[in-house]
Amino acid sequence: VEDQIAEGDTVATRWTVSGTNAGSLNGMPPTGKQAVIGGISIDRYVDGKMAETRVSFDMLGLLQQIGVIPMSGA
Q: In whole angstroms, how large is the CA radius of gyration of the chain?
């Protein structure tokens, strides 16, 4: 978690994750390559329980890092 802000019933979180593509991804075979991506989650809570979540992250960057899509200019 890089940053987190809460106001009312909403919590916004900016995060970074890293990992190795060791399993299939949407039917694509694993590449064994590592990736680091960032994203943002916005969650809304009702009575202390998560009622809604929205997530945005760099899918293009992920696919480029694991070698499914070539890097631009390469």
A: 16
Would you say 58 and 65 are in contact if contact means Cβ atoms under 8 Å apart? no
How far is residue 73's CA from residue 46's CA, in Å, rounded to a whole number? 47
52 neighbors 43 (Cβ within 8 angstroms):
yes
Q: List CB contacts of 30: < 8 A, sequence separation 6 or more.
A: 21, 22, 23, 24
3-state SS, residue 14: strand
Element (H, E) at 64: helix 59-65
Mean pLDDT of the chain: 94
Comparing 6-10, 21-25, 31-35, 38-42, which segment has the lowest mean pLDDT? 21-25
**Angstrom distances, CA of residue 20 to CA of 12, 44, 49, 63:** 26, 30, 31, 12
